[in-house]
Design goal:
By secondary structure, the chain is of the alpha+beta class. The chain is built from seven helices and eleven strands. It has two domains: 117 residues, Alpha-Beta Barrel (N-terminal domain of MutM-like DNA repair proteins); 132 residues, Helicase, Ruva Protein, domain 3. The strands form three sheets. It has a five-stranded mixed sheet, with helices on one face. A four-stranded antiparallel sheet has the order 1-7-8-6, covered by helices on one side. The protein is elongated and about 65 Å long. It binds a DNA duplex through helix 5.
DNA sequence: GGCCGCCTGAGC
DNA sequence: GCTCAGGCGGCC
């Protein structure tokens, strides 16, 4: 379900509810969500661990224990993480419950069961959030135009697809790639090797701007979070283009278009995000074999 | 590059 | 009944 801003919202809500608590019994109702190690060992290792803090890297959350062990997870499409009192009725599709020392429970609910948990013991290499697995955070100063250009400038894939590559930038998914490209004024189907220096500049500044804006717009109280069962976020109504095909562009009023790009539904403004911007004509010269008018 | 699998549910 | 969904890995 969530992208970086939503995962950060979950982290901020849960940290004060989890820090300092010790894990008691561990109940796994569906072993397929446990990616590492085997469910039996996973449960045994987890029991008795005291939670120090929760961090986020890209779309991954990590519970850090005082022992030095860590529990990392990814919510994928429909994962929900909730802290609630032991007596509350179980939501359908609850797959994991950790009882906490304050008589609350940390519950993992996931309709589609795409989400995954990994437990790493102290000293064990984290294969998920290491440097070769995840690129910089969107707010990392390294993410300037020259970084993007040197990393992507020769690629023939679309810029939208490359923004989804977690090794390039961590945390961007289908909503925020559309939002970022709208703010940057770049057509989502533009090939990376056709982007100009000015495009890379606007993209570099749009990435942190839009992500920070998303985190800010997501802010909510723990009560609101629980009421929305951890799946309703506040920013949806503020998104500029995502899910708004047919509606007027917030900048120019033209109807927003929807198109499948890189296999993902994409929404953009045909006027503000031109597929062939003026001045890019020389980039459209095709070799003879391509001309099949 | 595109397609499929993994899953269930919402909306049409 | 069909299509689609905010993710990601794998396959050809």
């Amino acid at each position: 379900m969530p992208e970086l801003p939503e995962v950060e919202t979950v982290r901020r809500i849960l940290e004060p509810q989890l820090a300092g608590r010790t894990v008691g019994t561990v109940e796994v109702y569906n072993e397929q969500i446990i990616a590492h190690p085997k469910a039996e060992l996973f449960m045994a290792l987890l029991q008795g661990q005291t939670i120090q803090k929760i961090s986020r890297r890209g779309k991954f959350l990590t519970l850090h224990f005082e022992s030095g062990d860590r529990l990392s997870l990814h919510l994928r499409m429909t994962g929900q993480l909730l802290v609630m009192p032991k007596g509350e009725p179980l939501e359908k599709h609850t797959h994991l419950i950790l009882s906490l020392s304050d008589s609350n429970q940390l519950r993992y609910i996931d309709v589609r069961r795409f989400g995954r948990f990994w437990y790493f013991q102290k000293g064990e290499t984290d294969t998920l959030t290491g440097q070769d697995a995840l690129g910089p955070e969107p707010t990392d100063p390294i993410l300037a135009a020259d970084y993007l250009k040197s990393k992507l400038g020769r690629r023939k894939k679309t810029i939208k697809e490359m923004l989804h590559d977690q090794t390039v930038v961590a945390g961007i998914g289908n909503i925020y790639s559309d939002e970022i490209l709208f703010v940057a004024g770049i057509y989502p189907g533009a090939k990376c090797d056709a982007l100009s220096d000015a495009d890379w500049e606007r993209l570099a500044s749009a990435i942190p701007e839009v992500i920070l804006w998303g985190i800010d717009a997501d802010q909510m109280t723990p009560e609101e979070y629980l009421r929305g069962k951890g799946k309703e976020y506040r920013n949806a109504e503020h998104l500029r283009v995502y899910g708004r095909a047919g509606q007027p562009c917030p900048a120019c009023g033209e109807a927003l278009c929807r198109k499948v790009i890189g296999g993902r539904s994409s929404t953009y403004c045909p006027n503000c995000q031109k597929a062939f911007p003026a001045g890019a004509g020389s980039l459209q010269v095709k070799s003879q074999g391509d001309n099949q008018a």
